[in-house]
Design a protein that fits this description.
mainly alpha, 11 helices
């Protein structure tokens, strides 16, 4: 019998890690549900949930409903996030890229020194970051111009006990009842706030520090904000977005899929199939973009702004 080599054992160990991680997550989830159900039977917790049902009152000027622009913003954000996560993971795990891109040193982006050669995966990641940033600026302008910010920014301290109440209700599988067309529950509100105003800026700030756009002569600033700090934060932020997408999609589908999808994609508060079909079409486009984000299809696009070499 052939004795397993250290490399074989290492490969087996790496292959078993995802399964062990998934098993551990299921065990933790099961324990959380049991603890939450036990808590819901306690008189003090029952009184707490009755006093704080899971959502706080919005300001009187808060708009009702979701505007049309939020529908395409939701799709674009989802598309960019999925592709940014994919390309970012490729950049992190590709040891020897086989295709490189070098920017054309002319036009508005002309520099004294020759542009740096980067991998095609990194070019895609940075290009998607730029598109995501542009989309984010448009989103923030529309968010504050329309008053929709009041739906995702805490405006009273009652948000926090209501968020705890909503978390207990979710964990106990007796989910909070709310109408997202009018008002998100407080846990949703805080999740959206953290995603838009904390996680997204952190992703931008850490990604900028690790990119070639960071000024090499800014030695003092680089000491204050070392690249090691950016690397230590960038990956957890990416994992946060992965977790947010998984939980978000799961709850949308599990808490009234037709109505929720119509809120998000159909700009209506009913159970019609309009939002579902738009959502289905957007998923098809995301899957297509995922598989088309390969060197064969990326080279012609990248060559429009630089030279592509092997």
């Amino acid at each position: 019998m052939t004795k397993p080599t250290p490399k074989t054992r290492s490969n087996r160990s790496k292959g078993s890690r995802p399964a062990l991680t998934a098993l551990a997550a299921l065990v933790i989830l099961f324990v959380l549900v049991l603890v939450a159900k036990w808590l819901r039977d306690l008189p003090g917790v029952q009184s707490f949930v009755a006093e704080f049902p899971g959502h706080s009152e919005l300001p009187g000027a808060a708009p009702v409903g979701l505007p049309g622009w939020l529908q395409w913003q939701h799709f674009l954000n989802g598309l960019f996030i999925v592709l940014i996560i994919r390309s970012g993971w490729q950049v992190r795990t590709t040891a020897r890229p086989n295709t490189y891109w070098t920017r054309n040193n002319k036009g508005l982006l002309r520099t004294k020194n020759a542009p740096a050669k980067i991998s095609l995966e990194l070019w895609l990641h940075l290009s998607l970051d730029a598109l995501w940033l542009l989309n984010g600026v448009v989103f923030l302008v529309l968010l504050f111009a329309s008053g929709q910010w009041m739906r995702i920014v805490p405006t009273s301290w009652e948000v926090f006990p209501n968020a705890l109440s909503a978390a207990i209700q979710y964990a106990s599988t007796d989910w909070p009842v709310e109408n997202g067309w009018v008002n998100y529950n407080s846990l949703q509100l805080l999740a959206y706030f953290v995603t838009v105003f904390v996680a997204a800026p952190l992703a931008l700030a850490t990604g900028l520090r690790m990119s070639s756009l960071w000024p090499k002569k800014a030695t003092r600033l680089s000491r204050l904000y070392p690249i090691e700090m950016a690397r230590a934060v960038h990956l957890p932020v990416m994992l946060y977005f992965v977790g947010f997408v998984i939980v978000h999609v799961t709850l949308v589908l599990a808490t009234g899929a037709l109505k929720n999808l119509n809120h998000m994609y159909g700009a209506g508060d009913d159970g019609s199939w309009v939002g579902f079909w738009i959502f289905a079409a957007s998923v098809v486009l995301m899957i297509a973009a995922w598989f088309l984000a390969r060197p064969l299809f990326l080279r012609p696009i990248a060559s429009l702004s630089g030279s592509v070499t092997r």
